[in-house]
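Q: For a teaching handout, I want to show students what a protein-ligand complex looks like in token form. Below are the inputs, and the small molecule is pyridoxal-5'-phosphate. Please produce the holo structure.
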Amino acid sequence: MFEGEALNMQRKVREDAAAYLGVAQDQIALTPNTTTGLTLVYHGLPLKPGDEVLVTTHDHIVHHESIRLSTERNGASVRKFALFDDAATASADGIVDRVRQAIRPATRVLGITWVHSSTGIRLPVRRIAQALEEANKQRPEAERVLLVVDGVHGLGAAEESVAELGCDFFCAGTHKWIFAPRGTGIVWARPSAWARLRPLVPSFSDMEVYNAWKEDRLPRGPTNANRVTPGGFTAFEPSPPASAS
Ligand SMILES: Cc1ncc(COP(=O)(O)O)c(C=O)c1O
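A: Here is the structure, written as tokens, with pyridoxal-5'-phosphate included.
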């Protein structure tokens, strides 16, 4: 991390990840896992009393808990809704209709899971993003409904690239279908979405943050993916035999 450009491992990982995700390398934060990524996003968003976080009943405990822990601090409310009654008969049209019906004026975020680990259902994320685009047309920028995706079981398993999904924040660990070591993961967002977040963990990855600290001033410029990448040295021991559970 503190080596010159040629030996900078974070940079190399970002470049490789960017090529696979179909996005720019400076739009990727490196995280230890999905759980941390979701935590950084939900705690980083400028939510306040009166705002609502909408999430489905099908999401993983770490997604629901990231939202609970965040909203207990910032005073926003949470509402859960089901995208289908029975996974065996769920349809893309039905799922998108449920999303349209669930959005209310106070909704600021929608949290979903790309591929559900309990049933194997893969959501039509692109179509859900399009439904939100429609809903957002009438809204000022600060009131747009943002789409947060837990993508851990889709990344490496689905054809679509992250760039094609149309979401605002994509959080995933990479030890499942990418077969990377445990303790690795990513969050992807566009620069305008990164700019909305307040970082939670000190970063080792942004020179401006370091320079500002040395000069005893605030960092200049908007939040970016590097500033949200948690700092601190981590262990990257070899993975145990591949497991996708
Ligand atoms: C859908 C889903 N989301 C999140 C997680 C947590 O992933 P991580 O260990 O990368 O935080 C899992 C783990 O099994 C999962 O199945």
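A: Two things your students might notice: Residues 33-35, 60, 62, 113, 117, 150, 152-153, 173, 185 surround pyridoxal-5'-phosphate (CB under 6 Å). The domain at 13-201 is CATH 3.40.640.10 (Aspartate Aminotransferase; domain 2).
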